[in-house]
Amino acid sequence: MSMTNNDILIRLRYALDIKNTDMVEIFKLGGIDVSKEDVLKMLTKPKESYDDEASNDDEIDENHMKVNHFSFESFLNGLIIFKRGKQEPKPGQPERPAMTIKDHGSVNNVLLKKLKIALSLTSEDMLEILADAGVIVTKGELSAILRKEGHKNYKVCGDKYARNFLKGLAIQYRE
């Protein structure tokens, strides 16, 4: 089963030990106003994730809020500002960074790229984090994942890599 933006948010929050109030602040820094209640709904698994048979989209789950690509990327942008401080845009640069998540296939790539920036990680740090989770990746493979979509050496980052990266982050940040 592929990871949703909500799954990633839940794992990221756990890995980095982010408080709910900080989650609200990070979304705000990314340009989205959410309440603490909204955050709690985003961090709640939907009912249908427990029962595959009941995946009825007509049913609305009041205790769950789906995180779309725009909200998720806004959160990641906010996380960069939260961890590194606000940067003044250079002349001719847009006020807000362009959204780079085009479809579900690019979510994990954008996640790794933005976490690399937010946490000031080097490629070696990222390889070490993956190794902590039991995944050995070459520097070339990692560089292909971090490339811009459309580059001839770009490689889509699968859920396995993203899941293990978040697991490795939890190992490093929570011990």
List the helices and strands and how they pair.
Blueprint: H1 5-16, H2 20-29, H3 36-42, H4 69-84, H5 107-118, H6 123-132, H7 139-146, H8 159-174
Describe this protein with a few key phrases.
175 residues; mainly alpha; 8 helices
Q: Radius of gyration, Cα only, in angstroms?
A: 16 Å
Count of DSSP strands: 0
Decide which structural class fits the backbone. mainly alpha
Main sheet specs: none
Amount of helix: 40-55%
Order of helices and strands: HHHHHHHH
Low-confidence stretches: 50-59
Overall residue-averaged pLDDT value: 87
Silhouette: globular
The number of distinct helices, counting runs of at least 4 residues, comes to 8
CA-CA gap between termini: 29 Å
Strand content: under 5%
Could you explain how this protein is built, in words?
With 175 residues, the protein is an all-alpha fold. It has helices at 5-16, 20-29, 36-42, 69-84, 107-118, 123-132, 139-146, 159-174. Helix 6 packs across helix 8. The two termini are 29 Å apart.
Quick summary:
The chain has helices spanning 5-16, 20-29, 36-42, 69-84, 107-118, 123-132, 139-146, 159-174. It is mainly alpha-helical.
